[in-house]
Design brief:
By secondary structure, the protein is of the alpha/beta class. It contains 14 helices and 9 strands. The strands form 2 sheets. Strands 7-6-5-8-9 form a 5-stranded parallel beta sheet, with helices on both faces. Strands 2-1-3-4 form a 4-stranded parallel beta sheet, sandwiched between helices. Strand 1, helix 5 and strand 2 form a beta-alpha-beta unit. The protein is globular and about 55 Å long. The model has no long low-confidence stretch (mean pLDDT 90).
């Protein structure tokens, strides 16, 4: 199956699992050409990407190794098209490109592009494909990354797209760094299988929660607990996916009780940029859904505390120095796993894994 063999409206109407075969490469054991949603990654691919990220970070420790990595993709160019505000995701992808020697260009505000003159996003992205070998894009428009993956695959110059966040829908590279952080956190303590992961905060509109929840289904017997006010509780399509995959989960409003059961706690901020009316989120009582030292005392000694950031007050700064607080390491992990994804997308996984450094 190829994207050139299906029309856009037909492809758009498919479920994510049905779309997956159209995004796979013909070469056996190759990673997806476009990275659009979490459903593209099975456990084998996740483990390969984690191993590649570990290999890249090891090679990069020496000057000689770092120079070798910079030579890997020195012939490639990537456009970072971020039409939605971002700092961590943008800089993480930029740093990942720099590690691999990829030359980058960027647009971070549509007002500085021809969209200001009325050009469509589709035409802007088609223009970028004339100059670059990859587009890494973040957009408030749901489904835009998928649409452009189809458009470019059916153009005279097909290049890969990496979805760095699309509306309230998916954030697959964030989910990859979250999985990578969890795998590293438990790698010397029995692994990720059989763990309990608690999600807390704005679970209705948090695309990081949606993507990570799905990737956790790739591991054995990982229970998921969703803690939030009723107005912000996890949507039914997420729980339906868990039921389809026979994953145990709980819906709760008791953070303390959930933390007692948790191996990992994933906190999120209120996503009020999606409010239908100004100040709507502020009218929801979220006081019982903030993590502080009292909760830290309930968390297992080998547990971990994650947050995709930016943070407001949902995790007290008094927790920052605890070794279980992983959110700063989580950010650095994002640079390495994104470097692995970029290298693998361009077909350099095997070369890096077998090089002499």
């Amino acid at each position: 199956m190829k994207l050139t063999e299906i029309g856009w409206n037909e492809f758009k109407a498919l479920s994510l699992d049905e779309k997956r075969p159209y995004l796979e490469r013909e070469e056996k054991d190759s990673l997806p050409y476009h990275t659009l949603f979490a459903q593209q990654f099975d456990r084998g691919v996740l483990e390969r990407l984690c191993a590649l990220a570990n290999r890249i970070r090891f090679i990069n420790k020496s000057r000689e190794g770092a120079l070798y990595l910079k030579s890997i993709l020195a012939h490639k160019r990537a456009m970072l098209y971020f039409s939605q505000p971002s700092s961590r995701t943008f800089l993480s992808h930029l740093a990942a490109c720099q590690i691999l020697g990829v030359t980058t260009g960027s647009v971070r505000d549509a007002a500085t592009s021809s969209e200001f003159k009325g050009e469509s996003k589709e035409d802007s992205i088609r223009t970028f494909s004339s100059y670059f070998d990859m587009i890494i894009m973040r957009s408030p428009e749901q489904g835009l990354a998928e649409k452009m993956a189809w458009e470019l695959s059916n153009s005279s110059r097909s290049i890969p797209i990496i979805n760095a966040g699309s509306g309230k829908d998916q954030h697959p590279t964030q989910a990859l760094l979250d999985i990578y952080t969890l795998v590293r956190s438990f790698e010397n303590n029995g692994g990720l299988d059989g763990r309990t992961v608690v999600f807390c905060g704005d679970l209705l509109r948090g695309r990081t929660v949606r993507s990570l929840s799905y990737l956790l289904t790739r591991f054995k017997s990982v229970k998921q607990i969703f803690v939030a006010p009723d107005e912000l509780q996890v949507p039914s399509d997420v729980t339906a996916t868990l039921e389809e995959n026979s994953v145990e989960f709980e819906i709760s409003s008791d953070l303390k009780d959930a933390v007692k059961k948790a191996d990992a706690v994933y906190m999120t901020r209120i996503q009020d940029e999606w409010d239908a009316s100004k100040g709507a989120s502020a009218r929801i009582d979220t006081s019982a859904f903030k993590f502080n030292e009292e909760h830290l005392a309930l968390l297992k000694k080998e547990g971990c505390l994650l947050h995709p950031l930016p943070r407001r007050d949902e995790i007290s700064t008094s927790c920052d120095r605890d070794p279980r607080a992983m959110y700063w390491r989580q950010m650095r992990n994002g640079m390495w796993i994104r470097a692995a994804l970029i290298a693998a997308t361009f077909g350099y996984e095997r070369e890096i894994m077998t090089c002499g450094y």
